Every structure is written in structure tokens, then in C-alpha cells.
Amino acid sequence: MSPERSAPGKMVNAFNPAATEGLDAATQAAVARRARLLGPAYRLFYRHPVAVCRGEGTRLFDAEGREYLDAYNNVASVGHANPRVVEAVARQMGTLCTHTRYIQDGILDYAEQMLPTFGGRIAANGHMMFTCTGSEANDLAMRIARHRTGRNGIIVTAEAYHGNSHLTAGFSPSLGDASPLGTWVRRVPAPDSYRMDPDTLGQKMAEAVAEQAWELKRHGDGLAAFIADSLFSSDGIFATPGVLKPVAEAVHAAGGLFVADEVQSGFARSGDRFWGFQRHGIDPDIVTMGKPMGNGYPVAGIAVAPEVVESFGRDTRYFNTFGGNGVAMAAAQAVVDFMRDEDVQGNVARVGARIREGLTALAARHEAIGDIRGAGLYIGVEMVSDRAARTPDAALAARIVNDLRERRVLISATGPEANVLKIRPPLVFSDTDADWLLSEFSAVLAAL
After folding, report:
1. Which of 44, 71, 327, 385 is deepest in the core (most CB within 10 A)?
2. Is the pTM of this model over 0.90?
3. Domains of the chain, start order
4. Distance, CA of 385 to CA of 360 (rounded, Å)
């Protein structure tokens, strides 16, 4: 999961380990055991943490058999314990699981099927390279970008999250103020469609990128790459189409590469496109993928235009012991096969529209809902204390998240002010699931 923090750098929606007095004895014991065995860096969600032991489709279950509606987890993109993925992984694990230095059909079949989906130069004659995680994918993308350009600078959005390796943490400001950014990193504001004119978002963002690229050049780094999550998840979820097109032009004018981070927004999440960057009409130099790619099995990777990786491949080599192994590719193949056969993208578009319609109806009755935005099954609901002034209300957002948890509906919050409710369920979310979510959300608002 991507981290979500408030402006001072504290985790959003995190359990407070100093406040255990309201928990039952079993939960207190489990919390204490986690702290003893895993240490202080791990975080739990919710004021009252959830202990899960089983998942099925869009539902999670605790040890007592209580059922929770999962409206948050994008890793299980085609549903928890999806039978087709489980069967494919088990079959391949029982056959062969080894690295990519042998000729194997699975990895080639997958790459051959996926490359055309990206369009542009990548579809024409691009390549895929495989990793285990999205962090590794973004790390590899930046290694390639730096090698290609001979520069070090990276530009990101103000609250971006791109990974937790040493390199990617260095350009992930959402990890908090105590997590240092690289001296070669520059930030630009996210395209805030709630507080800015949507018609000028792309141009203003492009101007900011050009300015920061010049600053990098002045300081001797130069621009290697601009990288963005196409739905701006950690920045508060912004989904205005076309925003990144002038940005890509500015990046290329400065001699940098455009990297589309599709870990959050790819694999049909937006409903209207299979890849989030396609909503912006751009031809990226590198596309990175992760979390939802294997429905819980660790598989990730990049797709790259041929000229971008040519010198990197000539001058160095890439090898990953587990990236692209047979089991990983079986999981990834099962996911895209399921998406195709079950028209998952169509479901995302339809159910996402149903949820946004229901939320819009609630906003007409509740002044605390300032904005509803997103695409497909990635929806942000911005909570405010003053709708006219658009004043962020992080306390209210946290209360709603925790009140929904008590009603066994799981969402989270995001954004620089921690006031944007994040609704990001598995892509197989149904009409029944949507109605359950909206009903409980309505009840929580009414109780306020």
C-alpha cells in the first residue's frame, strides 16, 4: 500500500499504539506482539485495528467470521483469492519456478500480449523488463533514465509516492518530512482540479516542470526524468484528462524522459482506459507497473521504448533472481486473462459511475463533502469544514474512515491535508458492493 500522511508528516488513519485502552484483550495482545516482533516502523490501520484471516472477492473476514467490505485494496485487483489466479500459480509452482536466464514461453507470451496495449513507440517495437515490486520497477526506470540522459535530476509532484527502495524513497515526498529527499529532486504542485481552473491545469503544471528543470540544470544535475502517477493518488486523487500532455512536452524539451507510474492507475483502474497515461494522450518513454499485476503475487515491471533502453542494455546488464520467474508470469497472465474474459474494464466504468452518482446525491445533503473526483474505481471525496472556502477537514475524514471501519467497510484517506477519502476497491466491485458502501457512508454522515 502507498503511504498516506498528513501535512506534518504523520501517517493518516494510523493506529495509535499508545491508545490501546479501548481494545479487547486479544487485540491488545496481538498489537503488543507485533510491536515486539516487527519493531516500530510498521503501522496498523484504523483506531480499532482489523485482524483479517481470509479474503474472497471483495470481502475480508476476521477470525470470528465477521465480513468486511474491502473498498480499499488495489493489490487484489481481480478479487481476493481469485480462483483462476490461485490455480495458475499452484499449477506453475508444481511445474517449474526459476529465473529468466533460460528460455521459457510464459514470460515471452505475456510480453507479446501486453506490449500492444501501451500504444505508441512501446507498442511498435518496445520491450518489457520484469521486477518483483513497483519500487523495483521505478528504481530500474530511473537507472535507465539516468543512463540514457547522462543526468541525475528527477521531478515529481508535491506529495508523490513512488517506492521504498533507497533511490525511490528519495523521490517520494509522501513518506514524510523525516524521510529525506535527494538533492537532485524537485517538486511541482499536483493538478488540483478542486482549487484551480481545470482548463489551465496542464499548462500551469508544464510551466512548473520547465522551471524546475532549469533549476536542476543550474545546479549541475539536469533533468533525467519526470515521473507521475497518472491519477495522482498521494496528492489527493486528481483525474482531469489531458493534464499531462503539455507536461510531457515540457519534459522532452528539457531533455528528460517521461515515466508513467501505472502502479496505482494502470490495469483498467480508470475504467475509460486500460492505462492511466492514455487518458492524457501521451506516448511515455517508460511505463512502470506493480501491485495489481499479479493479484497479490509479487510481480512488477516496466515497458520501455526501444531507443530509451538501447545504450543501457549495451553498457550494462539487468538480472533479477525472482523478477519474471515462471510463477510470477503465470499469476500475471491469469490476471489479464480474467480481465479480458470477464470484461473487468467495463465493470470498473459502470460501477465507478454508480458510486460517484451516489456520492453526488449525498453531497447535495451534506455540506461537508466539498468535492467528488476520480475515474473508474479510483474515487476521492474531499471533506471540508467550510464548502465556500474549501477548507480541508482532516479530523472529519479520519472520523468517517474509522466510523466506516466500525460498520465493517474499509476505505482510507489521502492528500497533503489528509482530508480526501480514498475509495479504491478491487476491480470486481459489484453493484451490491457499491450499494453497501453508499448505504453505510450515508449512515455515517447522518450520524455526524
Report:
1. 71
2. yes
3. 25-78+343-447 (3.90.1150.10), 83-341 (3.40.640.10)
4. 18
